[in-house]
Amino acid sequence: MLAFPGYLYLENFKQAIHDTKYFRTIGNTVFVTSGSLVLIIITASMAAWRLTRTYERGISKAIYFMLVAGMLVPFQGIMLPFVKWIGQLGLMNKPGMWFIYMGFGASMAMFLISSFVSGIPKEIEEAAIIDGCSIWQLFWRVVFALLRPILLSVIFLDLIWIWNDYLMPSLIINQPGNQTLPLMVFQFFGGQFKKWSLALAGLLLVMAPVVVFYMFAQKWVIKGISDGAVKQ
Fold this sequence. Notes:
Layout: H1 11-19, H2 22-53, H3 58-68, H4 75-89, H5 94-117, H6 122-130, H7 135-146, H8 148-164, H9 167-172, H10 181-185, H11 196-230
């Protein structure tokens, strides 16, 4: 018989928080996610702006298509040689995840940002140069500020991906004390048993920070995606 819950039962959440070591684990997840997002935003925005402004040149167009083509490469198809290569570079740790996610996330971010950049009038940049801005000042003080709507959209899309990712952290940082939230919640799904009550509580705890972020940023996320879709 189906019915609405008769009372609020929080013991599953308390047990899930204890079993997943929630506050330490969420710290690991924030560390990996925030560092990855910073690198993706910085590298993708710089590359998108420069390549868009010089797109008519043959080499810029070739570099653009080569970088955007990275979106077509599935991680599952290259994960075995990739993990071996990462191990040889000594990046099998939490900071190493920043560069891994940057490599896989920068292509889509650059694709979205370049569409947005093409809608920014060049006269704004020319006026800033006339006023004495260097190339770095032009990017950080003028262009980067104008990119805020699309950057928030990129942050949200990559936040969902990195925050909820299970496969890559399980291959790279699956050491005790360093796991992210999806890795810790997976312990409720055993081969011989499944703790559905704790699993559902744990999954809600994983979702909560992303939902809260979207509630505050949804206006800019939607605006950035819609503006980037029509400006070409």
